[in-house]
UniProtKB/TrEMBL annotation:
Encoding gene (name): LOC111593462
Similarity comment text for this entry: Belongs to the ferritin family.
Broadest EC class assigned to this enzyme: oxidoreductase
PANTHER family: FERRITIN
Catalysed reaction, written as an equation: 4 Fe(2+) + O2 + 4 H(+) = 4 Fe(3+) + 2 H2O
UniProt keyword terms in alphabetical order: Iron, Iron storage, Metal-binding, Oxidoreductase
Protein name: Ferritin
BP-aspect Gene Ontology terms: intracellular iron ion homeostasis; iron ion transport
Keyword Chloroplast belongs to the record: no
Protein task: Stores iron in a soluble, non-toxic, readily available form. Important for iron homeostasis. Iron is taken up in the ferrous form and deposited as ferric hydroxides after oxidation.
Domain of life, per lineage: Eukaryota
């Protein structure tokens, strides 16, 4: 009975579905799960740098903000999925890396993760083009592609600046530099 009821409700969802392929729906579900993986990874990084034996409040705050931003990304896609009449399928979030040698190690890991997320966004866009779905193309372009590139530049800058600091004192000053920084702030400042 419960299954029949769920199927009927699903039909109400489907009657407004138009030009939204199953392959795009699946790919967007993968994207939601990638954003949640990034959310989880940045949360693990944030609380690694909050440990008393690590004690880097600037990097803690930076990754905590990044984690919330990734959660926002996942929810933005979930809202979009419901607008298109798709079915959200949340998967298992993989266990994040929890130990980092230093700030450089974490920043390099974050940049790798962002490049992976960006590649998947580009794949979503390519699939949407192939499926002739301009609405999905527009959604990805308007909300993700520039923000990804901006975030990747910020991470690459931080990696280079930390390389230049080289000493413990430099590391400390670098942490101060990060306190008010956010990976995805450029777009918000423009608005
Ligand atoms: Fe993201
Ligand atoms: Fe990101």
């Amino acid at each position: 009975m419960a299954t029949r009821c769920a199927t009927m409700l699903r039909r109400y969802c489907m009657i407004m579905r138009q030009n939204f392929s199953k392959s795009c729906e699946d790919k967007l579900n993968d994207q939601i799960n990638m954003e949640l993986k990034a959310c989880h990874q940045y949360l693990a990084m944030a609380y690694h740098f909050d440990r008393a034996d690590v004690s880097s409040p600037g990097i803690h705050g930076f990754f905590l903000k990044a984690s919330l931003e990734e959660r926002d990304h996942a929810e933005l896609i979930m809202k979009y999925m419901n607008k298109r009449g798709g079915l959200i399928r949340l998967g298992t979030v993989p266990e994040p890396v929890g130990e980092f040698r230093d700030a450089m190690d974490a920043l390099k890991h974050a940049l790798e993760l962002e490049l992976e997320v960006n590649q998947h966004l580009l794949d979503v866009h390519a699939l949407a083009s192939k499926e002739n779905d301009p609405n999905l193309c527009d959604f990805i372009e308007a909300n993700f592609l520039q923000e990804q590139v901006d975030g990747q530049k910020i991470l690459a800058d931080f990696i280079r600046q930390l390389e230049r600091a080289k000493s413990d004192t430099g590391d400390y000053l670098f942490d101060k530099y990060l306190i008010s920084a956010g990976m995805h702030q450029a777009k918000k400042r423009e608005n």
